[in-house]
């Protein structure tokens, strides 16, 4: 598969179906460090990024926010001292779609760009 980070998010319609678990498993292999978590019976992609201090964690949070706005797809972001937990899922599908994997890859790329 082409690198996920090179793709753009596509609008999802209300009630669209989430990706099948087998497809999610294959895509997960392309985004190291991410895991599937289930919250309120909804699968989500989640990763915690670590930083040496709060300032760097906050800077990363802001970069993820800018990325989300640019792509029109928004995660849950929890920022704490030295760490940021980012969770992607598609609300309209009540689960994971290709956009979530694309955004996870782009989020990981933000971390690499900041090193």
Give me the CATH architecture, please: 2-Layer Sandwich
Going by helix content, strand content and strand pairing, the class is alpha+beta
Question: At the fourth CATH level, what is the homologous superfamily?
Answer: Transcriptional coactivator/pterin dehydratase
So what's the CATH class? Alpha Beta
Shape: globular
Tell how many strands the DSSP assignment holds. Answer: 4
Strand fraction: 15-25%
Query: Averaged pLDDT, please?
Result: 90
How many domains would you count in the coordinates? 1
Uncertain segments are none
**Helix-strand topology string:** HEEHEEH
User: How would a crystallographer describe the biggest sheet?
Assistant: 4 strands, antiparallel
Integer-rounded radius of gyration: 14 Å
Q: Figure out the total of helices.
A: 3
Head-to-tail CA distance between termini:
26 Å
- Helicity, in percent? 25-40%
Give a quick precis of the structure.
The protein is an alpha+beta fold.
Describe the structure.
The protein is of the alpha+beta class and 115 residues long. The chain has a single domain, classed as Transcriptional coactivator/pterin dehydratase (Gyrase A, domain 2, 2-Layer Sandwich), CATH 3.30.1360.20. It is built from three helices and four strands, in the order αββαββα. It has helices at 21-28, 54-71, 98-114, and strands at residues 35-39, 42-50, 76-80, 83-88. A hairpin with a 2-residue loop joins strand 3 and strand 4 (83-88).
């Amino acid at each position: 598969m082409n690198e996920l980070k090179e793709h753009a998010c596509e609008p999802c319609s209300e009630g669209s179906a989430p990706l099948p678990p087998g497809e999610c498993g294959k895509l997960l292999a392309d985004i190291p460090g991410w895991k599937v978590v289930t919250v309120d019976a909804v699968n989500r992609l989640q990763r915690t990024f670590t930083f040496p201090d709060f300032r760097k964690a906050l800077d990363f949070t802001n970069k993820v926010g800018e990325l989300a706005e640019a792509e029109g797809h928004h995660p849950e972001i929890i920022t704490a001292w030295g760490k940021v937990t980012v969770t992607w899922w598609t609300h309209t599908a009540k689960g994971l779609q290709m956009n979530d994997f694309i955004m996870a890859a782009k989020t990981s790329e933000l971390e690499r760009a900041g090193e």
